[in-house]
Amino acid sequence: MPELPEVETFRRRLRPLLLRGRIERVHFHPKTRLLRASRLSANQISRQVKGARVREMRRRGKYLILELDSARELVFHLGMTGKLIEVAPGQEEPHTHARFHFKKFDLLFIDPRAFGRIVLLPQGKVEALPGLAQMGPEPLGPKFTAAYLQKRLHGRRAPIKSLLLDQRILAGLGNIYSDESLFRAKIHPRRPAGHLTPNELLRLRRAIRAVLQEAIRACGTTIRDYEWAAGREGSFQNKLRVYARAGQPCRRCGDRIARERMAGRSTFFCPSCQNQRPA
Fold first, then answer.
1. pLDDT tens digits, residue range 95-109?
2. CB neighbour list of residue 76: distance below 8 Å, 6 or more residues apart
3. Each residue of 22-77: pLDDT tens digit?
4. Residue 15: Cβ-neighbour burial (10 angstroms; 0-12, 13-18, 19+)
5. Which of 53, 190, 252, 265 is catalytic?
6. Which domains does the chain carry?
7. Is residue 180 flagged as an active site residue?
8. Does the global pTM surpass 0.90?
9. Is 2 marked active-site?
10. Is residue 137 annotated as a catalytic residue, yes or no?
11. Any catalytic annotation for residue 265?
């Protein structure tokens, strides 16, 4: 699933292309399931965005939001395998669910597994959308501090890995970058979140920000089919220290990377570097 670095990479690439651009028309695949969270039909969305210009493109967690000059906002969630790419007008690509026609190019929403979503809302209503309404602070923003972590995790017995995946606590963090951040902070993923010391929370906050910033600079992580542009993959997979490295030697101590199932997800960690004791 695209996480914060991948979604931010899409935003940084597409924003200069889309700003002040006019949506000439929109075409949805007749069998698309990406509108299942929308109260509007494909025809209604097409009519309401036709002719609108893009005023801004921003990201909130794993969501991308197009602000239009028609007092409406288009919200995209990429789901498991979604991506937004620009192509030459009329160029066909497999698994295209939506095509936004601009003057010099088409913007495609491609999603092989069709878990993504597209919603059109009146301006100012986006924050009330389920999934966004109770979302936590941005990990690269000023509200994400060690003090914030201490407050939100106080008394919690759930494993820290599980709570890092909770978008109500922190926006945009997913499986890859939570594992990488816990490794850098030398914290075992099964540690009860409320047992983390102030020093550990400070290390964790620093690790999360550092990992995300590095991944954004690398244009994200390509494990299977993620591309941030047609034919362009991310490169952070070359820097992964634990994720998807089960059985391989730890780059820090040489011990074998372990893999366990947590919160329904595969979790990777180093048993030696990330022991269960406070450090």
1. 999 999 999 999 999
2. 63, 64, 65, 66, 82, 84, 109, 116, 117, 118
3. 999 999 999 999 999 999 999 999 999 999 999 999 999 999 999 999 999 999 99
4. middle
5. 265
6. 4-128 (3.20.190.10), 146-269 (1.10.8.50)
7. no
8. yes
9. yes
10. no
11. yes
